[in-house]
Amino acid sequence: MLKDTPCSMKVFDILRQMSxxxxxxxxxxxxxxxxxxxxxxxxxxxxx
Length: 48
What we know:
The chain has helices spanning 9-16, 20-33, 38-42. By secondary structure, it is mostly helical. The two termini are 18 Å apart.
């Protein structure tokens, strides 16, 4: 989902620590908000 986005490697490290379902939810939110920052990846629910 995020392979063609400007995500840093740190964002992928953060996503790897989540369960698979949370990874998908976070990726969907990041794409929807067009926000691929580390802070957004750490706590995507507060930005929904």
